[in-house]
Amino acid sequence: MEMVELLAQDGVVANLKASSKKQALQELSQQAASLTGLHERMIFDVLLQREKLGTTGIGRGIAIPHGKMQELERLHGLFARLPKPIDFDAIDEQPVDLIFLLLAPESAGADHLKALARISRLLRDEAVCEKLRGADDPEALFALLTVPTVSPAA
After folding, report:
1. Exposed (0-12), middle (13-18) or buried (19+): which is 138, by Cβ within 10 Å?
2. What ranges do the domains of the chain cover?
3. Is the pLDDT of residue 6 over 50?
4. Which of 136, 135, 149 is nearest to 6 (CA)?
5. Are 116 and 66 in contact (CB under 8 A)?
6. Positive or negative torsion for Cα 145, 102, 83, 56
7. Among this protein's residues, is 66 annotated catalytic?
8. Cα 140 to Cα 81: distance, rounded to the nearest angstrom
9. Which of 39, 66, 76, 112 is catalytic?
């Protein structure tokens, strides 16, 4: 699964202004509502429910909030870079400045997990994260996130 299948150009926020995890999730829910056509409160509630199970702050300044929604027909991604890192209850207790939101249909199953794995692999790459942190233009961020991957030879 390529990132361009998950992320639309208008799904990139270069300078998300948020001072808390809750505010970041609210802002992202609002952005996701405009992409999906779903009500932002529904999206926010799904994200909060997931956070109650355990933080989606995976460490090194990265969070991947995600959830499944019956109303969706396909996967939707949204990326945000925060100019000022925020506390996200991350597993390494470090503040977060890169957030990749993933919303999936209830029926997504393996596709949801593959998408999470793809996002995680991309954001584990320190060189990619450094470039993302250095870019403040949505088009540049989108280009960095959607560079096609080369599969290793079998």
Report:
1. middle
2. 3-145
3. yes
4. 149
5. yes
6. negative
7. yes
8. 12
9. 66
